[in-house]
Structure formats: structure tokens, C-alpha cells
Amino acid sequence: MRQGSGGQAVIRFRAVGVSLLLVHLLLVGWLTLRPLDVPWMTAANLQPFAGIKADLTLGPAAAIRRIGGDLLLLAPLGVLLPMAGGRLLVSPWASLARTVAAGALISLGIELGQTGVPGQVVDVDSLILNTVGVALAHVLLVPACRARLRRGKQLRIRVLTSVAHEVPQGATPTISGVGIAP
Q1: Which parts pass through the membrane (predicted)?
Q2: In a domain? residue 171
Q3: 126 to 21, 76, 78, 130, 167: CA distances (angstroms)
Q4: φ, ψ for residue 144, nearest 5 deg
């Protein structure tokens, strides 16, 4: 294993993260910002938790489908944003704060984008649930994945250093017969 391959692995890891992030955002944009043909539209929901309460009155199956859909829509960002960042040694709280803030801003951008799309309705509860979904995905997956990746990296470093200590380096070269300048 070459010494520089660890850096290349991080670059590949980040490239995969950025690629998956872009694919996910394109899919979310297509799902949420395309015009819909609807015979009628509800008014925009700007009162927090009013839509969630209304969803709960529809029954368990409909509530799970609607609330779960909003929770899962941007949840992959909780993993993909840190993956695209490619950092292993970072404060868990700082990573969570950055990821949740980015998820909330993306969700806000989607909600604001929906104001000009026929058939799409702005819902503040979607913003809340999308952000909670990002936070849950981050908390449940990212710390464990980072710890596992760090353990694997430490194992590779130990193997490389033990191999480096076993290989004879030879004598230090000296230059003889060189005088001192006057």
C-alpha cells in the first residue's frame, strides 16, 4: 500500500459523497418543484404544527405516510453532507450544527421555490419535518460511521508504521574528504 493512497481514498470518498448529494438534490428538486395538475389547492400553511395536527386527524396510516414522507425527503442529507465534506476528525456537535443548518436552508429554499410552482403549496411543517429528518439521520448514522472509518484508518497507519520499522534503512551516507573552506 502506497503512502499517498490514504489521501486518494479520502478524495474518492468525497467525490462519491458529492455525486450522491447532487443526485439526491436533483431528485428532490424534481419531486418538489414540478408543476402539478390539481383541481383545487389548499391554502399555504404558515402556522407551525397545524399541518401535523391535521395529518394526525386523518388516521394512523395517512399520518405516517404524510409525516414520514416529509421526514424522509431530506434525511439522506444528514449523511451525504458530512460525506461530501470528507472530515473524520471533527467535533460531533459542530458537524451536527452545520448539517442541520444546511438541511434547514435547503428545505427553506425548496419551500420558497414552491411559491411560484402551480399545484405546490408552501407548508412550514414540511420545513420543520425535513430539518428533523436531516438531524435524525445525522445523529443515528454519522458518528458511528466516522468512528468506524477512524478505526480503519488507524489500523492502516499501524500496519504501515510496523512495516516501515521492519524494513532496514541502511547506513546514513557520509561525504568524506571535503575540507572546510578558508
Answers
A1: 12-33, 71-89, 96-115, 127-149
A2: no
A3: 20, 15, 16, 6, 60
A4: -65, -40
